[in-house]
Design goal:
rod-shaped, about 575 residues, 22 helices, mainly alpha
Length: about 575
């Protein structure tokens, strides 16, 4: 039975080969020459197949894949000058796509997080506005027409501040309390059922002279609110500013200028094996490391500053973990305003005479504390005050982003190694003799150089865009170090639960200082002098390259062995007969 099966296989294989050769008389010749090179050329979308010769030729203009001028003219290849140039274009596209793919996840994570964080803050601002407006209406009888515009202006200043424009939060808080004071003063006068009508002139006086009244009707609370708002919003603003710069850094590396030397090196690595018909031979690991490290060494110019800025983000995250989280502060803002108003109502006997001396309207005031309606005398704050601990969904997202950013430390020093670690593209055996070594299939014998050696041994041409990016990263690091050394981070950590007991400093916080003090070596790193002046004279080139997702074709599942017996043989024979009949029909 087995012999019969074997005989049937042989007969039908012969028939199949015979009819296929009838259908395509050139098929035998196509499997020789440069046929497989043409197939790979089309499969990888390098260019039109007409650029690849059908048979090996000698082209004296080839200069990248080998030196044709010194090459024996009897040694031919499947490359022409035209196909070699198209390989250079494909090599550049391959490298850019590889770098883009390497950075794509981190870039998308950070960009999505920026949008989510901004949307979250906007929702919190609007919610805080609604609660505060309702509080003024329900508890203090201040009509919407009286408080809507001052309240809108105040919260708009918060939005403007977060958009990195200069706004004096101290002035914004004071303006809000100035606008509210005439209505609270009226509320106080009406505490004993006294009918009071304030003239426009009197209302304007109370508004404009509120800060001259001694003691201040709202006590130190406007200063305290300004202080904590300044710290919390500055932290949020810095956080978004840093994330935006990190995205800019990734975009710059995606579009950096690749020198001609780099393009030729990647061409020899990726495609020159096609000239020798070594289509399925992977480049040697050592060959890849030397080519990629030499090509991407200029990225090291931003490595120290990138690493330092990531560590600075960790410091921002630590501040958010304490009490200077913007979401936490904004959620408690209506409660703090309520506390300030309660202070003005319960201490009116201390400043009423000063108010009357400044703005007139002498009406006897009871020394009894006047409290808002429905509020017990023991209450120290309004019932709408939000009690929310620091944390929640957004803070968890911040921790997730921070974790991913920490994994990106030294990414620009190791990007070449990460590329060469892709087993699907490169032979991973450093001593392999079955890989493409740049000249032929065999072991790569050159010494593999590390990044520090390359930086000290070679004169790099650095893209001016990378030099400019380095300066931006360094400036941002210095900016953050200045801010948070002035914020007295250590003292605030010792007193994490204080809310209104701290004192406001002299005026709004300024980002400009004459002296920088820091002992945090991790943040500053060490930027050598090797980069100073590098890249001068080189012209930046902008590339508009559309990157596609890398997709890998899955291997087919392993075939199950056919059970022994005549039925298996008959099934295969019938299938073969059908194939022969189909071919004859086509012919």
């Amino acid at each position: 039975m087995a012999k019969t099966c074997l005989r049937q296989y042989f007969v039908f294989f012969f028939l199949w080969t015979f009819y296929v050769s009838l259908a395509d008389p050139d098929s035998g010749s196509q499997m020789t020459g440069c046929h497989r090179v043409k197939q790979a050329y089309l499969r990888e979308h390098i260019g039109p197949a007409s650029l690849v010769p059908s048979e090996p030729i000698y082209d004296g203009d080839i200069s990248i894949c080998f030196n044709a001028a010194s090459k024996d003219k009897s040694e031919k290849s499947c490359c022409s000058k035209a196909s070699e140039l198209s390989y250079v274009t494909a090599a550049e596209k391959f490298l850019r796509k590889t770098i883009h793919t390497k950075n794509a996840y981190l870039k998308k994570l950070v960009m999505d997080h920026i949008v989510q964080y901004e949307e979250r803050l906007e929702n919190v601002i609007q919610s805080s506005y609604n609660r505060t407006s309702q509080l003024l209406i329900d508890l203090y009888d201040i009509p919407p027409s009286a408080h809507r515009q001052p309240l809108k202006d105040f919260y708009q200043d918060i939005r403007t501040y977060l958009k990195m424009k200069h706004v004096s939060l101290y002035g914004s808080v004071n303006s809000l309390f100035d606008s509210l004071f005439p209505y609270l003063y009226k509320y106080i006068l009406e505490g004993k059922n006294i009918s009071v009508t304030l003239s426009p002139e009197h209302t304007e006086c109370l508004k404009n002279k509120r800060q001259e009244i001694i003691p201040n009707p709202f006590g130190p609370l406007p200063y305290n609110i300004s202080h904590i708002l300044n710290k919390a919003l500055s932290t949020a603003k810095s956080y978004m500013d840093v994330l935006t710069l990190l995205v800019e850094a990734i975009n710059t590396t995606d579009q950096m200028t690749l020198t001609e030397k780099c393009q030729h090196a990647v061409t020899r690595l990726q495609y020159c094996s096609h000239c020798q018909q070594e289509i399925d031979t992977k480049p040697c690991k050592g060959f890849c490391l030397n080519s990629m490290r030499r090509c991407l060494a200029q990225l090291s110019v931003i490595s120290n500053d990138w690493n330092g800025l990531i560590m600075s983000v960790g410091r921002l995250q630590a501040w958010m973990a304490q009490k200077y989280d913007a979401e936490h502060t904004l959620n408690k803002l209506d409660g703090k305003l309520d506390t300030a108003i309660m202070h003005a109502l319960t201490t009116s006997e201390k400043y009423i005479n000063s108010t009357q001396q400044i703005c007139g309207f002498r009406t006897p005031i009871s020394s009894k504390q006047v409290l808002p309606k429905n509020i017990p005398a023991s209450s120290s704050s309004g019932p709408l005050k939000i009690k929310r601990e620091i944390g929640g969904e957004m803070y968890e997202k911040i921790l997730e982003v921070m974790k991913e950013l920490l994994t990106s430390l030294k990414m620009f020093d190791t990007i070449a190694d990460d590329i060469c670690d892709q087993q699907i593209f490169y032979d991973q055996d450093i001593n392999s003799t079955q890989c493409w070594n740049g000249l032929t299939k065999g072991r790569y014998t050159e010494v593999v150089e590390d990044i520090p050696t390359l930086l000290t041994r070679t004169a790099m041409v650095i893209d001016p865009k990378l030099v400019s990016l380095k300066d931006k990263l360094a400036a941002m690091r210095v900016n953050l170090m200045t801010r948070y050394s002035d914020f007295d981070y250590a003292r605030d950590r010792r007193q994490p639960m204080q809310s209104d007991s701290f004192k406001y400093g002299s005026g709004d916080y300024s980002l400009h200082h004459d002296h920088l003090q820091t002992d945090d070596e991790d943040l500053y790193g060490s930027s050598g002098d090797m980069y100073s002046g590098s890249g001068s004279g080189s012209t930046p080139v902008i590339f508009d390259v559309t990157m596609e997702d890398t997709r890998y074709t899955a291997l087919p599942p392993a075939k199950k062995p056919n059970p022994a017996g005549g039925s298996s043989c008959l099934t295969v024979s019938l299938a073969t007969v059908l194939m022969v009949i189909l071919t004859l029909t086509v012919l």
